[in-house]
Design a protein that fits this description.
Blueprint: H1 3-6, H2 8-15, E1 26-28, E2 35-38, E3 44-53, H3 65-82, E4 89-97, H4 103-118, E5 122-131, E6 137-145, E7 162-166, H5 171-180, H6 188-194, H7 200-209, E8 213-216, H8 221-232, E9 235-239, H9 247-256, H10 260-266, E10 273-277, H11 279-286, E11 291-298, E12 302-306
Parallel strand pairs: 4-5, 9-12
Antiparallel strand pairs: 1-2, 2-3, 3-6, 4-6, 7-10, 7-11, 8-10, 9-11
The structure holds magnesium ion.
Residues 33, 79, 82, 215-216, 218 line the site of magnesium ion.
Length: 328
């Protein structure tokens, strides 16, 4: 069977059996935002990697080089945030380069990574450069110190708990549509697409408040909350009216004839955090972080969208999956 028939998530499920989650010091292997291992002396670290490929994750025609560097690091830091990590972190960068790329462009990529890392105690410390004749790529791996014993996993959600999300959803995909239609890179939504803000402070606060599970929104709310449901063996019910959507996203969606709710639940790349916690924990957390409660964990499986009248809501797509033409 070819990769294209299998799809990203089927492939991950298949390849997981070749991994070694019992390796010495491993606390958490595949199936979360980052792997967690314990070093001698009891210090715990989260380890993650993410790549961006030309023509798949970015198009140089509308992605400033500085933004490419910033985002390549930001999406990795977002995975640390989703584990509740907040300590210093160190990044290795692998650049796959076409011969015709300008050296000055790469300096901008590195300036972007430095500008991102500076805000989150993250240092780029090394890496590798390889030839990639057809398409450029940038791959970042990151190791970060966890604050203490705990971390926010995907498998901690229990029925009755509240589901919340930081910030707003849908801006990124709508910003991408704006970029693709030549509206420039300085609109609210385009900036959100190009310069996602890792929710490091919120992840740390969620861990300290006693939250049970978290994930960052990379593939879209439905898919990413779906990962929490799968790993936890539960379902989730989300109230569409409570999903936070910015006024700018609503305006862009209206102007382009798109559905802002579909953008919010299936768009992806918002790099907000989905947090699951007991009601009183969520109450404490909401006092210190900008987050919106959007639903609850229920027995069963999968994510169900409902409106205030209790009616089931369906939207066109369910989120992004590599190797698949449309979400399943
Ligand atoms: Mg993630």
């Amino acid at each position: 069977m070819r990769v294209g028939e299998k799809g990203e998530f089927g492939l991950i499920a298949d390849l997981r059996r070749w991994l070694d989650p019992e390796a010495g010091g491993m606390i958490r292997g595949a199936g979360d935002d980052a792997a967690v291992f314990e070093a001698r002396g009891g210090r715990r670290f989260a380890y993650t990697a993410d790549a961006m490929v030309e023509g798949v994750h970015f198009d140089p025609a509308y992605t400033p080089w500085h933004a490419l560097g910033y985002k390549a690091l930001a999406v990795n830091l977002s995975d640390l945030a989703a584990m509740g990590g907040g300590g210093p972190s160190y990044a290795l960068v692998v650049l796959g380069l076409r011969e015709d790329i300008e050296v000055e462009a790469l300096e901008e990529v590195y300036r972007g990574m430095r500008d991102c890392g500076a805000g989150f105690s993250c240092a780029v410390v090394g890496g590798d450069i390889v030839a990639s004749p057809e398409r450029m790529f940038i791959s970042v791996s990151l190791v970060g110190a966890l604050a203490g014993d705990g971390f926010l996993a995907r498998d901690g959600a229990r029925p009755g708990q509240a589901v919340a999300v930081t910030g707003t959803l849908g801006d990124s995909i709508l910003g991408l549509k704006e970029l693709m239609s030549g509206k420039g890179n300085d609109t609210h939504c385009a900036r959100r697409h190009l310069y996602p803000e890792p929710r490091m402070r919120e992840g740390r606060a969620a861990l300290e408040a006693g939250a049970s599970a978290a994930i960052d929104v990379s593939d879209g709310l439905l898919r990413d909350l779906g990962h929490i449901c799968d790993e936890s063996g539960v379902g989730a019910r989300v109230l569409v009216e409570d999903i936070p959507i910015s006024a700018e996203a609503r305006r862009v969606a209206r102007d382009m004839g798109l559905d802002p709710v579909e953008a919010a639940v299936a768009g992806g790349e918002d790099y907000e955090l989905v947090v699951v916690a007991d009601g009183e924990v969520m109450g404490r957390l909401a006092a210190t972080c900008a987050l919106s409660v959007i639903g609850e964990i229920v027995p069963g499986e999968g994510v169900e969208l409902v409106d205030r009248g209790g009616r089931r809501v369906t939207v066109g797509g369910s989120g992004y999956e590599h190797f698949k033409e449309t979400g399943g």
